[in-house]
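Practice problem: Ribosomal protein L21
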Amino acid sequence: MTHSQGYRCKTRHVFKRAHREHGRANLTTYQTVYHRGDRVQILVNGSIHKGMPHRYYHGKTGIVFNINPRAIGVEVDKRVGNRIMKKRIHVRVEHLKISTSGDAHHARVVESDKQKQAVKAGTAKFVDLKRKVAAPAASFVITAPKVVDIAPVPFAGIYV
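Answer key — structure tokens:
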């Protein structure tokens, strides 16, 4: 018998809800505010079938390009053959989450900009802001511990 290649084929474990996380989504899911240009993660919630994206997009990060009353337009990169295409899909908010993938980079940029401004103002001296590979640990010598002979105490007897 041939295998049907339906829209939700091979999603048995991908869309499965975690232990004790079944049922409707939390209210915070619906109260999250999205803006154009935000980075979002597409994480499909299997308990809500409306506005569910194709399983290919599960786990992908995209950029918000459109906001509708119930759905958010997300632009995602998709590899097609030997090229990467920009795909625009509309996904309901239950299947989205604000991405934190660029937070470390943004914090590093802000910190380096502060250091550059301090150098320009003359309050600090020049510091190389480039990230560097961690150097190997410094060498050290292990000395053998001093060996002490331990002998048992001779038995004196219980009765004196």
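Discussion: DSSP finds two helices and five strands in the chain. Students who identified this feature from the tokens alone can consider the problem solved.
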